[in-house]
Write a structure and sequence with these properties.
This protein is mostly helical. The chain contains five helices and no strands. Helices cover 56% and strands 0% of the residues.
């Protein structure tokens, strides 16, 4: 058995008080376990929450394909009619999406 009942209880309580990577790293140091081991234990116990990736600007990431799809929807076109547009720089696509959104 890798973790005692007391260790498991301690890990869960500490993580629930402060659910972030710093807590996981602190627990790993404290219990002389790897970060992956702590994350695995928290996952098996049903309490681990994976951090959601955000862009540098704090937004959820959106793919170029999604932006092209939004543009097509705004223009009332099928995505296939805009084939190749996804190769355009993302900033340009966002500008186009914003401009088209303002027309509606």
């Amino acid at each position: 058995m890798n973790y005692t009942e007391d260790q498991t209880k301690h890990i869960i309580e500490a993580y629930q008080r402060n659910p972030n990577r710093d807590t996981v790293e602190m627990l790993a140091d404290e219990l002389q376990k790897s970060v992956k081991s702590i994350i695995g234990k928290l996952s098996r116990e049903g309490v681990y929450r994976r951090e959601i990736y955000k862009t540098k600007s704090g937004e959820l990431p959106v793919t170029k394909v999604e932006i092209v799809s939004n543009i097509a929807d705004s223009l009332g076109l099928e995505v296939e009619n805009l084939f190749g547009l996804e190769k355009t720089p993302k900033a340009t696509l966002k500008t186009l999406e914003d401009a088209i959104g303002g027309l509606e």
